[in-house]
Amino acid sequence: MGDEGGPGDYLPALNEKAAPNLRYASDRGSDSALSFPSKKLIRSLRAAAAGLSVLLLTSSAYAINSATSVFSRDATPASGSYSLQLFVYAITIGIFLVVGGLGTYAVIKFRAKPGDDKSEPVQIFGSNQIELSWTIIPILIVVVLFLTSARMIFAVQDAKQPVNSVKVTAIGHQFWWEFQYPDYGFTTANELHVPVSDPKTPTPTFLKLSSADVIHSFWVPRLAGKTDMIPARVNEMWIDPYKPGMYLGQCNQYCGTEHAKMLLRVYVQPRAEFDAWARNQQKAAADVAEARAGRDVFESQSCINCHAVKGTIANGRFGPDLTHLMSRDTIAAGAAQNTPDNLRRWIENPEVFKSGSNMPAMNLSPEQLTQVTAYLSTLK
Amino acid sequence: MSDSALPLLGGVRDVTIDHAPPRVTSKGTFLETAHSWVVTVDHKKLGIMYIVYSLLFLVVAGIEAMVIRVQLAIPHNTFVSPQVYNRVFTMHGTTMVFFVGMPILIGFANYLIPLMIGARDMAFPRLNAFSFWMSALGGVVLYYSFIGGVGLSNAGSAPDMGWFAYAPLTSKAFSRGHSTDYWTISLLISGVGSIGAAINIIATTICMRCKGMTMFRLPLLAWIYLVQAVLILVAVSPLTAAQIMLMVDRYLGGHFFDTQAGGSAYIWIHFFWIFGHPEVYVLVLPAFAFANEIIPTFSRKAIFGYPAMVAATVAIGFVSLGVWAHHMFTVGMTSVSNAFFTLSTMLVAVPTGIKIFNWVATMWGGKIRFATPMIFSVGFVFQFLLAGLTGIILSVSPVDWQLHNSYFVVAHFHYVLVGGILFMIFAAIYYWFPKMTGRMLDEKLGKIHFWVFLIGFHLTFDFMHIPGFLGMPRHIYTYEPDRGWGPLNMIVTIGAFIQSIGTLIFVYNLVHSYFKGKEAGPDPWDAWTLEWATTSPPPSYNFAVEPVVGSRRPLWDVKHPDDLDSQWE
What we know:
heterodimer; A: alpha+beta; B: 569 residues; two-stranded antiparallel sheet
């Protein structure tokens, strides 16, 4: 582009440049005489590094034990992601130490010293060999990282669905979760139950994810990474949990006012326990004579526009299915514990737990409230 | 260099200072001054207006950030309602990207490019003024939403659907009232301004270079802005198209994104990130540009590997157009797509790495002077390295399935935007403020600003990564106490307060030094590019005689006539 000289001139040989300017060489000599960085600085840097690693270690121990930690070996996609994370972190920390170390050295070593003459240092314009080496080495690292990740991507996304897997259709709503078990013929909400999987005969749970309104995202960190629930589209994911227990999660894609209170629970149960739970969910709603008054209120008010109770005229789908409401530990997608008292407060005024909830305050009389709460409390 | 020893540029004596008209001491009435700024087409005045305008919005969006941090300091906090919180985080993100980041960086381009390439103005001065006023109007429209619509209660009808506004949350069914409309219209308007500015930057860089300034003698800053401007053209257009489609959906019965009528939420995500990811590079490239000027000046060495830096910039420009779907690893793409975007995203690390290596190599063997612009740049190099590495972590899609939309991501991109870009914006202001105003910023206050801000930054954003590991999603107005996120969020909030103290020191420094700062003279940093060859502030015509240059560092040649750069380039 009209520059003088060919490409070979781009790198001036260091000696050529430095030779006629002896002042550079003498500068170098005086550099080494100065004992910088000082021992004190090195000591404090070392102390800081030690402190930092202690902090890192304690916080990572803390992280691994958290109920919503991404470092988990409790289920399959999560544990694979965990190992891959350790690998990626090791590589990135290695890069940071090398590059950061070189940078730190340069900043400390090549600072202008007090009492320095005003001469300029040797001007070095570049080196094709060096540029080439720090292009190729990163490319090699990228290749390694990519191949490792690609293996995991295909293993997780293209996994075959075993015949004895449990199938669940999960549908996101503003601001709660609907879970349908097509093979069992029932629907529940907010608390997903799945059987624990025996590594010898795995019974993973395959989820089909969609949304009834806006985009949501299904995330239970200790079990698997997240998958979005997009309206008019079906996504798939699977979990293969090894350890029974209750796993916490929540909506991970901003979905409106109460996105923060769209909480999620997954109960991983031993097979027999899961089967018993499923058998109970398949039953029609309990019909208890003493709760008749409450049922009348429920069915004569607009409750049934949004809620379903199997075996009754209530078949609304806009809100959670209440057939076995009392088998759940929480209400309002985890915003409150499921106690009769909380239930009553929730029906009276949903804003006390969740101000942006789509459930309206029903303006029931205190007597009606008591009756409806009593009725709902029988839906075991 | 003393003022009298005037630069000889390629053998032509620049007589700017001799022939400069006497400084006008009478400033005119307030109205006259205001009028001169409103009607100006001078690239320097417009550049300063862009920068001042963005700094005002930086303060506004910073206050919004503080509302967010106070609300999240403890679990189940009720400092603001969920409705207000959602509006505040949407406004924070939108403002920071569109009304702080974009305009301040375009402002520097406006101010610096003509000076650095020896031109008298931008290629299209009136388009330049038009672009500025469009960008400015966009911000005003966005903030009018606070008092428009339903009034002052509940934060008015400010947008509340997040800065990426995923459909169908923006459809009439889920976004009643006009909050989405304010957001859409303001971005449409400012988008026109950005596109105008980009065209201007491209035309200026290509057509307005002075004699002897070949493309390979172009200051790296101008090179990088050229690539950035091309990215703006390519990236902002899809956003503008998507905004128009959204308006058609909302007002003309269209169904582009209306999932209840056969539209696709998925298409919006693609449109948004086809804009959104190159946008990240639109914001970060200027930070590289500043570093490429500041680090050599204070290391007293030429930039290491100029051709490699140009190549890396162009490579980043190209690759960044093919990585957008790494924001979409969780939307249910096929395994092949996920693998492709994992690879393309990782590849960005290669040219970016080259830049970091070259900065370190530039400092290597230098005599580094730690003036305020330099310490901010050194902070930038290390923080940007970390931000890049967390970016590598997120590019691995099985890891991203876990960390996507968690606080780890929030920490990652704030590391880029604050630890990288904002640090370099501070560095650039400390570096070029003397050129713009003729006065130095106070060095002592500058260093206090740096250390306070640095401590605040690391308290905030280092600790913000950990809640992400612990499963904390972004965009939540509160969280459950049993998750263990509370203490970490408290530390983050304390760090945010320390950062605001640092920013206040900076604002004080700006105002104080504008009136009382030390006289700067034409070349306070003993630098090598053309803007330092003219007076501070430069006359409206920049150079009395068009400069002629013989190398990448014309003022080095002037100062070292026995050791011309051209023999090594």
